[in-house]
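Recap quiz, item 2
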Amino acid sequence: MSGELIKNDTRPVFKATTFQHTSKSNNKKRAWKSLKQIISTERSLQWPEDYVHYSSINAPPTFKPAEKFSDLSGLPAPYTDPQTRLRFANKEEYATLIGLPMDITAGYLALRGASSIVG
Amino acid sequence: MEMEVLQFKDLKPVPDVIHSHGVDQHNATIIIDNGSYQCRVGWLNQREPLLIFRNLIAKPRKERSKKDITENSPVLQPQLQVGNDITNIEAVRFQLKTQFDRNVVTHFEAQEHLFDYTFTHLGIDTEKCVAHSVVITEPFLNPNSSRQLMSELLFECYGVPSLAYGIDGIYSYHFAQSKSEDNGLIVSLGYHTVHVIPVLNNKTSFVNTRRINTGGSHIISFLHRILQLKYPAHANAITLSRAEELLHTICAVAIDYKEELNRWTDPDYYENNIKRIQLPYSTVTTTTLTFEQQKERKRELAKRLAEINARKREERLAEDEEKLNNLMAIQELLEIDEDCEEIDQLLTDNQIRNVEDLHKNIAALNVKIEKTKEKIVATASNEDIVVDEIPAKQTKLNKMVFENEKAMHVYIQNAKKLRQDILTKKSARKQRRQDMAKRRTAAGQERMRIISQLARKEKGNDDFGLRDEDWDIYKTISREGGDSDSDAENDKLLELEEIIRIHEPSDVDDTLKPGESHQLHIGIERYRAAELLFKPYMMGSPEAGLMEVIGYVLSLFTPEEQLLLAGNVVLTGGLANLPGLKERIQTDLISIRPFKSHSEVNIISNPSLAAWYGTRKWARSSEFKRNLFTRAQYDEYGSEYFKVHMASNLYVPMPKGHAMDVCE
């Protein structure tokens, strides 16, 4: 454990020498709980009725239809290329679009969150 | 028109000094605004925060192969960098860690490193404790388990005497404004989240608050990605830090996004409003050697090699001749006196056993010398041929004379056509190579089909190879596609380009200024990135945007309350600095409110530091002392306990019998 060794060498004087995170004491290999895990544990508990917790204030899903913008330029895009599923605004953009290598088109789709096959 | 070209500043953090811990700070409270972007730390009795750093650590990974070495000599291991120690953030991008998961602290080992950094740089040197009360900000509705671990760390590891928690946005609202109204709608714009928090009669309405999980970090990474995809050639030069710099310098919020987009479709508007940003580039143009130059270089190399060989040959020749002379001398001696002792001595010196051997050696040396001489003569004449050949070719090109204009035109058109043919062939091959390398293209699938068919051939009726054409199939399925860019083709291309350049000098010439190819042109992107706040769906998030959420939160109140809230919308957090944000929210708010009803939007002064100023002001108020909870109370009431006040979360202890297991 060379990491531990260094930490002890440079341990600031103001720290308690014996402190250990309670959650870490049993097993060093264990990772810290992620926020997702914390939330799901929190939700599973029997809270008082009026209790508001972290996940109860998530913004509602949008009720407005998503406008379509060109993936390349950001302009309003009336067209979609059936091959790549990319949106484009005009024929100049289409000309660039068909020449794009696959990693770029995939990158645009992933950025818009539209890379899943189902969507 | 000469356009202004902006430069990246690439500002680097300056490592913090270790401040001295003066008498002034004796028993003073430490104020910490622990944000997921930056941490701001200062003393209660100082007006400004002493430390401002990114809440980040760069943890060097242990290299497996070097494990043994590092165990014996830990000094060699790269050091852990914390906060402003990280001067080059891009160099350690993949080792960065933060204690935050979204806006909540979850990784308390990282938090411990950051507290070490904080307290060390504040100059604290007391043995085994930090003898100062601490006020620290936490997220809205911070999960109990996170607060629990934070208290544990501060009380048990750092020996803090007392502690208070509060929410950053609410501290800003109540205490960083010169006069805070009893009612208002806080829009707290953070690095990972945006909160819309209604306050009525100075009380936070927790149940009607909403959080959008889109913040500054998303805008930065969105901008980063769209620029990388727009300029794939510069993908490595477009770093997250640079995207962040762009957000801070040129990004803005469009007051009317649709209208803004419309304006950009006009080429004149585009030309006048585009921002040109220079990426660093080197003026050394080693990579743009023409074929001609490359050839020249090759020729020079060959020439030098030939010279070295010639010198070696001459040396060898001289050596051999000397040896021959020696041997001849011995032979002469032999002829004079056969049994001389001197001769025996000489023979052994020259490593010759007997007289017969001597004769053999002489004969061999004679042949060798003859051969070497022949070679020298041959190479000399060869060189002349090589040197003569090249200028002849060049003069041939220059001497082209045409009978009339038309003939020249035809000739050039022909050359151009040939050149285009070669270029098309080359690009087709390139495309094919690219397609072949990928699995999901038609070419790739066809290749796989052929391969599987070849493999499937049953025994017995296998007549593959009977005809010579059968073997061509391997050309088709090779990734190179059978033929590759040949040298002959490149030579031809070079020659054609030369012809065209001589007769039509302007055509092939590139008039690009140095570095112009390394410029980013940023137009709509300036507004597109920040628009993410209002349209999270641009990044695939199903959540409602900022304006929709503000409208939604307002709809949860009675019309009278709505009037109070809409009449005092306060923006806080670093993103509030975005030009146009206030006007945009103002405009959109008017459009969703009843006709002629009052609404007002204001930005808090110094929005990035407002939370720290607010927290400090709160800690200077009379109610502060009552709202601290001590180590004794922590020990008595349990690790979840904290004091509830005007700017804090609510204290709701974990339901009994469900003690939360804080670790997986």
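The first strand of chain A starts at residue 79 and ends at 80.
Strands of chain A lie at 79-80, 87-88.
End of item.
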